[in-house]
Each structure stands twice: as structure tokens, then as C-alpha cells.
Design a protein that fits this description.
single chain; 356 residues; alpha+beta; 3 domains; two-stranded antiparallel sheet; 25% helix; 44% strand
Length: 356
């Protein structure tokens, strides 16, 4: 049942990760253009203010007299007023064109210029794209203000367990040998309209948490209890792996660089500090144990896929901190590893996360 659930959920999420829900209606473009009109006036007024301040400083230094300063201010005001008038007129014409044609407008462009790469990729046959990520858009459909981005996420590092009444130093699992791996997809949405210091990150991930027992021990399921017991032969390897599908949610804090052009507004977090705090919830897709040992001179590899009384529901807290795409990452399962265990154990992971 878990295997079927795994493939169904993965297939649905794959569809969602691609931009298969269709393009936004032209009305949204019109709303973006109207917002741009408001920003044009504000932008030109700010530019005029800076010019006036520069003129005043020159006046104070004696580089200009009062009449010269007054004339320069008048010219600057006329220039900015004309800029507002011309730029707003261009936007009004664009809005009228969209409304009159209900979004179906013609553009002049060469074939090689019809597609724009922002941070996606495509597979082409005879120059035509047959597959592309949702970061790849028709040039005519580039959003003026793009608030949501998506990226693949990978993480790798050390894994272990916190056991009630014990310190991590007393863990029965190998500190360096127990590891985790995570891969998934995330969406990052700017929370506030005119600032990007807070982002809302959400998505899905497949987590693979491994535990390697120490002292030649293996996991044994005795009814509703799962315990460690010494193995009859000398083990070369003993590992329990838990595969989870989770849905992480984080609030991300950090600065960004603002860039505005005639065609777009962008907030870039490239080469910026980032801090994320949140959690995750999901399901256990399967648990398996692998053993490697020698018996009568032959190498033996055993794989056991069983329940091992591991929790079906997975939920926990997580966070990351770092610079650009490389982040220090920690996660902690609030659910016990083994349900109904006499002594509770909680999975904990520490490693590096890569937001690509």
C-alpha cells in the first residue's frame, strides 16, 4: 500500500511542479500594468527629489547662484513631469491594447528570441521546446513583478537519534556512519508586496534517514517493540533506513537586492544571507534493514523490508542558515521513531542544504 501511495503522490506532485495549470489571464497583466503606473510617478518624484538636493548642495558650496539654482530646479521638474506623462501614456496604450484584444496581441520577434531562460531548462526538437520547467516562460508572458520562484532542494549530512534519558554521546548508533539524504522541490513566495525581507517557503521532499547500530547489533521486531540485539555473526554492515515523504514549510528571513527595469521588478537573494525557521509533516513510505556479513566463507547480503514499528506519520521542526545556495541545515522529528516504544527515540539530522 505504501508503494502505491508513493508513486501516486510523486506523480501528482511532479505535475504540480511543472507549469501545467495554464497561463494567467490577461486581466492579471492589466492589473500589473496599473500597479506599474503608480510606481512610475513615485519613482520620478524620488528622482526629482534627489536632483533638487544635489542642486541645493551646489548652491551651498557657492558653485551656483540663486537664479541658476532656481532655473535648474525648474528644468528638472519639467523633465520629470514629461517623463511621468510619457511613461504613463505608454502603459495606458498597453492596457488599451490588451483590453481591446482580450490579451491576444501580436509581437515582432525572431524565432530564437521567442523563449527566455530565467533559471529553467528545456528539451527541444528542431528548435521547438517539448519539455520545460515552470521557470521558462514565453517572453510575452514575463511577469512584471514575480513574487514566487521555485527551486530543487538537496540536503545531506549526519543522522542519529535523541533517546529519552540519554545524551547523544551514549547513542547506540554510529555518529559518523548514520546519515541522511533529502531531495525535493520548493516554492518561495514574497510575503509583503513592496519588500522581500520575509519569504514563505513551501514544497515537498523525500527524506531518507539512516541509522547504523554500533557493537555488532541489528534491529529485531518483537511484537509491538523494536529493540537492538547482538547478531550471531560478525557484521560488515548493519543499517536501518526510513523513507519519508514530507511537506516542509519555512519562513525565510534575509536581505535581497532590488532591481527595477521598464519590463520587470526583481528581488534577488543571490549571494545574500538567509535564515529559515519552520517545520514539516508527512508520511513514512517504507522502512528496511540491510545486513552484510560472512557465513561459512561466503559474503551474505540480507535486505528486510518490514514495518519495524516505525511511526506512520512524520512531523518535526527544521531550520537552516547560510549564504546564497549553501546552508547549514538541521531537522528534528517530534514523532518517535518507534511507536509504542518503552523508551522514545527521536530522529535528528545535521548537514548541508543546497537550494539550486
Amino acid at each position: 500500500m505504501r508503494t502505491i501511495t508513493f508513486y501516486l503522490v510523486a506523480f501528482v506532485l511532479l505535475l504540480l511542479s511543472q507549469n501545467l495549470v495554464g497561463q494567467e489571464p490577461y486581466q492579471r497583466k492589466i492589473e500589473d500594468l496599473r500597479e506599474k503606473k503608480e510606481k512610475i510617478t513615485k519613482q520620478e518624484k524620488e528622482a526629482l527629489k534627489e536632483e533638487v538636493e544635489s542642486i541645493n548642495k551646489r548652491l551651498e558650496k557657492g558653485d551656483l547662484n540663486v537664479e541658476e539654482a532656481k532655473l535648474l530646479k525648474t528644468e528638472a521638474a519639467k523633465k520629470r513631469a514629461l517623463n511621468i506623462e510619457n511613461r504613463v501614456a505608454i502603459i495606458d496604450h498597453q492596457i488599451s491594447l490588451l483590453e481591446r484584444n482580450q490579451g491576444e496581441t501580436l509581437t515582432i520577434a525572431e524565432e530564437r528570441d521567442r523563449w527566455e531562460d530565467e533559471d529553467g531548462f528545456s528539451i527541444r526538437i528542431d528548435g521547438e521546446p517539448i519539455f520545460f520547467t515552470n521557470s521558462r516562460r514565453w517572453k510575452d508572458d514575463i511577469k512584471y513583478d514575480r513574487r514566487t520562484y521555485s527551486d530543487p532542494v538537496f540536503a545531506i549530512g549526519l543522522n542519529n537519534a535523541l533517546i529519552d534519558g540519554q545524551s547523544l554521546d551514549d547513542s547506540p548508533y554510529k555518529i559518523g556512519g548514520s546519515r541522511f539524504f533529502e531531495m525535493g522541490w520548493q516554492w518561495r513566495t514574497r510575503v509583503f508586496k513592496n519588500t522581500n525581507w520575509l519569504r514563505f517557503n513551501y514544497g515537498f521532499s523525500f527524506q531518507f534517514n539512516g541509522l547504523k547500530p554500533d557493537d555488532n547489533q541489528v534491529f529485531v521486531q518483537n511484537g509491538d517493540q523494536t529493540v537492538l540485539e547482538e547478531f550471531e555473526s560478525e557484521l560488515d554492515k548493519s543499517k536501518l533506513r526510513m523513507d519519508n515523504l514530507v511537506f516542509p514549510v519555512h519562513f525565510e528571513f534575509g536581505p535581497s537586492r532590488f532591481r527595477e527595469t521598464e519590463k520587470s521588478i526583481r528581488y534577488s537573494i543571490h549571494n545574500q544571507f538567509r535564515l529559515g525557521i519552520g517545520g514539516y509533516g508527512g508520511i513514512n513510505l517504507g522502512t528496511r534493514q540491510k545486513l552484510k556479513y560472512s557465513r561459512d566463507g561466503e559474503n551474505v547480503k540480507d535486505k528486510f523490508k518490514r514495518d519495524y514499528n516505525t511511526s506512520d506519520l512524520i512531523y518535526g521542526i527544521s531550520g537552516y542558515i547560510g549564504f546564497d545556495e549553501i546552508l547549514l541545515y538541521v531537522k528534528y522529528d517530534l514523532n518517535p521513531i518507534f511507536k509504542d516504544a518503552v523508551v522514545e527515540q527521536h530522529n535528528i539530522s545535521l548537514g548541508l542544504r543546497f537550494d539550486l
